[in-house]
Amino acid sequence: MASAPSSEDMYVPQTVQTAVKILVTGHFAVGKTTFVGALSEIPPLRTEETMTQAGAAVDDLAGVEGKTTTTVAMDFGRLTLSESLVLYLFGAPGQARFQQLWKDMTTGALGALVLADTRRLDHSFPVMDLLEQYGVPYAVAVNTFQGAPGYDESELREALDLLAETPLVHCDARDRASATDALISLVQYLQTRTDPTGPDQPRPQDQLPAGASQTRTDQEFA
Fold this sequence. Notes:
The chain is an alpha/beta fold. It has helices spanning 7-10, 32-39, 102-106, 125-133, 153-160, 176-192, and strands spanning 18-26, 48-50, 69-71, 75-80, 85-91, 111-116, 138-143, 168-171. It is built from six helices and eight strands; from the N terminus they run H-E-H-E-E-E-E-H-E-H-E-H-E-H. Strands 4-5-1-6-7-8 form a six-stranded mixed β-sheet, sandwiched between helices. The longest helix has 17 residues, at 176-192.
């Protein structure tokens, strides 16, 4: 049986001087909770509730018929990058009915990682629209699902209507190393935006450790 986390594990070291906020988002049932859980060094905070028949009309279960719970507020995890820098991961729900949470969740966020599913790429549009609305830069990570169709990068970029500079990677949200690589792609992108000739954006002072707008349809997203 796993032992309870010690206080040393639960609280950040007193040497930490900088906290970085990153959003992990995407449409319904794309793997946000799994992604945050795979990376967090502490037991992640989860706000999952059992799905009911009342939600059947708004949460599309096509392709994910076995899903029985959904996030109703947010997920939260933590990853200490160095003695002075800690990363906070906020899993943001994508369903339209939770939009009221986004103003607070995007405040102070350095950037966002948008998880996508090749079976439902069009469901990613409202999420990306919201990030653009709030001015949050983002990268896209295509989460690997068994039986999902595969496409080359150019097809995915065209389908998602991504800018040339927007990072697009593949990941397995269940795997810590794969999730880390996806997060690294976002951080590296955010660092390129600190170039003196580019947008003036904040940046973390350390690299992640190795191994560790257009108007679109107004549809449901999670």
